[in-house]
Amino acid sequence: MKQPLQSRPVIFDTDPGIDDAMALWMLARHPGLDLRAITTVHGNAPVGTTTRNALALVDFFGLDVPVAAGADDALLPRTERFFPTQVHHEDGLGGGAPLLPATRRQADPRPAWQLICEEVNGAPGEITLVAVAPLTNLALALRHDPGIAHKVREVVLMGGAFGLHGHGGNVTPVAEANIINDPEAADLVFTAPWPVVTVGLDVTQQVVMPEVLLQSLQGRQGRVGDFFWQITRHYQRYYDGRDAIGGLYAHDASAVVYCIAPEAFQLRSGPVRVALEGIARGQTIQDHLGLHDESPASPWRGCPAQQVCVGVDAQRVRHEFMQLFEDSSQAAAAAPSGDTR
Prior knowledge:
alpha/beta, two-stranded antiparallel ribbon, 8-stranded mixed β-sheet
């Protein structure tokens, strides 16, 4: 007899964000995921904007979960603030925020770090933190209650770049956006005694959603497919101008797919640190060779081994996203092949 699908409880830490909205749709729709709460943070836009976007998306996707606003700056406040409007537009949603219906939903009164701590302590060993933004909220939660590191099931984050498959950083030659927006927070998260899986640019830039696929979303799942087609126009123009890929990268959706189908990814184990100074600030560096065991002074010595995604079945990632736009009979069609591009 077939066993019922076990849903994985998730808290989603996010800065919506076009690809964040796509990831949230997956969290809202997939039967294997149980979205318990959303926390917002600075990143693709100021936290006021990302929180408004999250509240509107919760209503648009028919969800009933708390949304708690989090940090509006890094652990070490920055003298200069920069938001990637060339990627996500001033409204964070590719100019598509006005397409969302007006919402009267209010943010949860708790700060994000407090919601995270209370949810984790209320369900020890169950909660997965899916973080697709700067890691300030997670670092603040650790600072307020270090014990949560032993109660979280797993931390799955979209962030980092390890120089694999020809992919470097997307803000500097070595630094990815979520990490460089708060390197101190990222280093704290990587070195805490909880299990981390990082889904970085090394694999997310292997997963291209071509324009023809995005165009096919129109008219599907009510207005949701039309919404995604329209907000991705700004996003695709940026990537077409930079990389000429004829589509866009599935950054945040890839992290959600890891929670659904971890077998679609290859992992590499070893402690991870983040460079905090100089021209390499924000670089994620994994000692996967165990060199820290040979040097008492190694910055990686004493840090827990974490998992870095080094390979991906790109077709599987696209399939997991697209099947959520099918009706039940279509979604039960043949499983995806093992093609990697």
